[in-house]
Queue: 4 jobs
Job 1
Amino acid sequence: MESLTDTLNERVNKLIPRDKSSEWGSPHLSVTPLSVAVSQLAADVAALQTAVREMALEIQKLSEITTS
């Protein structure tokens, strides 16, 4: 089971990169132009949506295995 967890963690980390809030262009910095911040936030939301979908599929697969 650990390998499945590791694989899922790796996939989520690939979809949702580590926070780089100290870099220019981050929506967390007040010096980032609004258009850049909104664009980055939209990309972050899209990545989160994809990651949640992938996690939901994995959970569904696991629940089907355990109830069989």
Job 2
Amino acid sequence: MNAMYFLIIPIFVFASAILMYRMTGKLQFLKLDLVQFLYAFVISPVFFIWLKSFIFFLLRSELDLRLTIGEIFTLDTIFSVVFLYIYAFVVIHSLTKTFDLHKKRNPLLDVYEMSEYFHLDYSHLGIYLSGALLLSVGAISNLFFPLELLHVKSVFYSLISMGLLTGVTIFTGLWMYESPEPKFMRWVKLIIGFFFLVFASIYFIFDPTFSTPYILYWAGFSIFTSLVFLSLFAESREEKKKFWQRLPFQLNPIKIKYLINSGRWWIGKKIMGK
């Protein structure tokens, strides 16, 4: 069964790559040539996972090397780093090949303008979304694998505070990015709101205790809480004089007051309705 598995995957990968090559230059996805996109974001990751599995299988089962887990981890890390360098060149090739295909179709194409599309919002949104997804997966997995730690309140609340501060730091970096697209910040806020709702929904489903064994979840929740709070109430600052006014945004008290009054009205309506 293992032999069949390790045989089928590379055959499928190479066969798919050869068959897709005939479609080069015919279709696009997010302004990337579709074939180049599949090479960079589908074929290469699948091949990477297969190679890691194959190497691990050889080291653990087939080769009589009697390696420890630490030695296997070291070899796997070396292979992963080497492959990441190779993958970087694969992505560079896919992008520049896309430029070449566009240039052949339209000799008057402004390649710089097209490269800025990938350099600015395209890559930034990809990084933000991937980072939020990675953070969420790590934090939410804590619900299924609680940490075996003593509940020391000072440490617990310190980490929660660090999470809130981390959210402020992340939002400051997001705000300082000057996108030429007016809707860029709306997309960022949409991503923040989505992941905040995911954390909030999971809380009501699993009801984790507010304690140290679930510190990763609560730290992640605190990061997105500060992010969503600033997304709602932050606005651009016109003057930057004093030290605490050097942040690229300021909180609008009118928005906060409006939200509180709206909440009071909604609660009062529910009580009167009952």
Job 3
Amino acid sequence: MGLYIDDMEQYKDYIVLITNAKAGIRLQGLINDEELSISSGASWGSSTIAGAGEGFIKGAATKFATKFAGEAVGSAVNNELKTVLSTFKGYEGDNGVNFPAISMNLFPNRFGNGSYSDIELMLAKLTQPDTDSFTDRLKSYLYDSSDTLKIAVGTDPFKNQLVHVSVGEWLMATGLTCDSVNRSYSKYVDDEGKPIYLQVSFNFSPYKSLNAEELSSWVQK
């Protein structure tokens, strides 16, 4: 691979591009993973409406039993009576989308990455706070704090913003936050004494719950 590392066209299906314009992040390398797995889930809980319906039925049955058999029986009916309504569940939200952990090889001064120092700065901006002094409020390099004010007027400030991740020409995910970055430098060095490559593993997640259209739009083909 090292002999043809400058031939981008040869590896276009395996190229991973990670960008964030606000922080000046542009990292491009070759994917290590054989597969990419995306998972999603839902959270279901007791239905409020069904619970109210069962409460009405239990109330009527308890009142009837109390009237004809006394409070003790009415109380027993209230405690024991169960209906199918009690098994009804309602949708409470999603359990999040697990974006695949991306593992890629980055090469210094190749694919527009710059030096290892440049790469490390971009990697750090994905997770570390932007501060100038001990008294500074912690903020992200990925967006301006003032952007969040748009939420108050019903505008989504992060739509198609934050971190963008593409794999080849088939996957493009936007609106991602970076949860972790793990680095491993090659033990082999070049003629200049620097590691041949840097292997980096990323964990990303969407900044909000995604509807079906938003999630399916990640796959471009």
Job 4
Amino acid sequence: MKIPTRAWKVFINIWFSLRFLLPLYVFINPLVGTAISLFMDVPDGYFSFRAKMRWEWYHKWDKLADYWWYILIVTYSYVNNLPILKALLILFVLRSVGQFIILKKKESWMLIFFPNILENYFVAYLLIPKFLPAFPYNLYIFATCTIIALIREYLIHIKKAYAANYIFKLGINWGINN
């Protein structure tokens, strides 16, 4: 059964609304809130593509939802006085500069210079103690988070390697260069 474009448009608007609301769960349960945010970020490109939304529309809303999540990470870290707060603040400023530049210049490839280490480091902070309680936060973890962020920025914003194309063989091609 083929889903009409209009239904996809309604759905993507609901989806983006939920991307702004559901991550607030981080304040109730940070691990679950993080999982929700990460999950919600994955398929929205596919949904927007199916809704025949312009790349610019999708990209703007995706980056705004991402930025909202970064604000929630920093706010949660501040409210709970996390020991990694200072590092997260620096990473937040770095990513904020990148977000501002790419929204102004419309050149998403530039995110390679402003990688999303913030999210990776926060996830590491939440997960590592669950499996390795004595493992300290140090340069090795930060470096690993940085490498993962750089690889992801390269794949998504330079190579245009969308996960949906590889996992589901969907053939998303926005027909853009940035």
